[in-house]
Amino acid sequence: MNVKIADSWKNILQSEFEKPYFKELINFVKTEYQTFTCYPKGKDIFAAFDHCAFDDIKVVIIGQDPYHGPNQANGLCFSVQDGIAHPPSLINIFKEIGTDLHTDYPQSGNLEKWAKQGVLLLNATLTVRAHEAGSHQKKGWETFTDAVIQKISDKRENVIFLLWGGFAKKKVKLISGEKHHILTSGHPSPLSANRGYWFGNKHFSKVNHILKSLDLKQIDW
């Protein structure tokens, strides 16, 4: 099966592409995109991988589903296209960065600049039908992205995993705590953040502190 994904990932994931579940998943996704409006654009489905080479990964952030409103999703979790209003979770992420690192609130909600610095912005489900949250869940994407997390854990060392909220925290079983760094907190969504489970986690300064201790270039958040 010919999946258009960055070369650095092809050998790592080729075995997944050949599995029956993945072939069924791709057929499902093709049919959905032909029949309904779906997000992100087809060329952006694997954007998280295209912007962050396997050997360059420093940090993994795990989201759940792409945004399902017009022109929002760009294939990177929590990220939106340039010029698009920032969704509530992204607003709270930027607020925490501002407090943690004493930086100004950014104009653009496009997190591509993070990805290019080694932050894998991975949604568990990579596609969604317009205005129908969760519509492509349990079709095979979670099996695929779990395999991605497992391969990062197995083949890399000293990657920092940021697990935000109950859904992401369940992925801890796929990650070797002996080889990697795992930071957890509540989800940045208003429901969790306003209850005190998000703000003050200082994950962004903590990531940079770990990277500095490893003699790696810190992330410009």
Overview of this structure, please?
- By secondary structure, the chain is an alpha/beta fold.
- The protein is built from 9 helices and 6 strands; from the N terminus they run H-H-E-H-E-H-H-E-E-H-E-H-E-H-H.
- It has helices spanning 7-17, 20-35, 47-50, 88-101, 112-115, 141-155, 165-169, 190-193, 203-213, and strands at 38-39, 59-63, 119-123, 128-129, 160-164, 181-185.
- The protein has a 4-stranded parallel beta sheet with strand order 3-2-5-6. The protein has a two-stranded antiparallel ribbon with strand order 1-4.
- The longest helix has 16 residues, at 20-35.
- It is globular.
- The termini are far apart.
- 36% of the residues are buried.
Rg result: 17 Å
Sheet with most strands: strand arrangement:
3-2-5-6
Largest sheet: 4 strands, parallel
Number of helices: 9
- What is the number of beta strands? 6
Task: Note the beta-strand portion.
Answer: 5-15%
Structural class: alpha/beta
Mean pLDDT: 96
Q: Give the distance, in angstroms, between the N- and C-terminal Cα atoms.
A: 36 Å
Give a brief rundown of this model:
The protein is built from nine helices and six strands, in the order H-H-E-H-E-H-H-E-E-H-E-H-E-H-H. By secondary structure, the chain is of the alpha/beta class.
